[in-house]
Write a structure and sequence with these properties.
The chain is an alpha/beta fold and 194 residues long. It has five helices and ten strands, in the order H-E-H-E-H-E-E-E-E-H-E-E-E-E-H. Helix 4 (121-132) links the parallel strand 6 (109-117) and strand 7. The chain binds inosinic acid (IMP) and magnesium ion (MG).
Length: 194
């Protein structure tokens, strides 16, 4: 039996939400379009056995899961973690924690998949680490790109949606570890974010 709220918003979350910015159907449609482009662009790398898809955990959990199942290509999935938003902060504080990259990155064409491009620090940090670890090339795929002045300019190859400056949650994105399981992308009410 599916949970009773499947297909709707969980009741306790509903009261924290100001508005839905992007609903689950729009997300699914856009992911299909991104997947079509990725298949065209990455099949050579996949055929040569050097494609690695690197989800940045935990925010890109659902995005990656939905995206990779639409890619009929040969590739490895190598998650990583980079943290820049400790606890209840809604502002990027710089990189606070980053996982070590494995040997398998050497010579790989890496597609980094992240939930959202904000200050740019996360992707900039990953690009430097991946190239240092011997990656052949690095591409970025983000579901959301926030319209903000970035601390570091990032050339993002694949973008799901450009969004205005707001703190968003859902579909993997969290505030203090919560709301990730919301199926849509929503803006939180001001009193929740504080
Ligand atoms: P950046 O390093 O500032 O570009 O931030 C990227 C990371 O910060 C993302 O991978 C998210 O985990 C987190 N982040 C940035 N903006 C938001 C938001 O609006 N909601 C939730 N997480 C966010
Ligand atoms: Mg993240």
């Amino acid at each position: 039996m599916p949970p009773f709220w499947l297909g709707s918003i969980p009741a306790p979350m509903l009261s924290d939400i100001d508005r839905i910015l992007i609903d689950r159907d729009a997300i699914a449609d856009r992911i299909e379009q991104l997947a079509e482009r990725l298949v065209l662009d990455l099949s050579a790398e996949a055929d040569e056995g050097r494609l690695v898809v690197m989800p940045v955990m935990t925010g890109s959990l659902f995005f990656t899961a939905d995206l990779v199942r639409l890619l009929p290509l040969t590739f490895r999935i190598q998650p990583t973690t980079v943290k820049s938003y400790p606890g209840k902060s809604t502002q990027s504080q710089g990189i606070v924690e980053s996982a070590l990259l494995p040997e398998t990155i050497k010579g790989a064409s890496v597609l980094v998949v992240d939930d959202i491009l904000d200050s740019g620090r996360t992707l900039d940090h990953l690009q430097t680490s991946l190239l240092q670890a011997g990656a052949k090339d690095v591409r970025f795929c983000v579901l959301l790109r926030k319209d903000v002045r970035r601390a570091v300019e990032i050339d993002c190859d694949y973008v799901g949606f450009d969004i205005p400056e707001a703190f968003v949650v859902g579909y993997g994105l969290d505030f203090d570890g919560l709301y990730r399981n919301l199926p849509d992308i929503a803006v939180l009410r001001k009193h929740v974010v504080g």
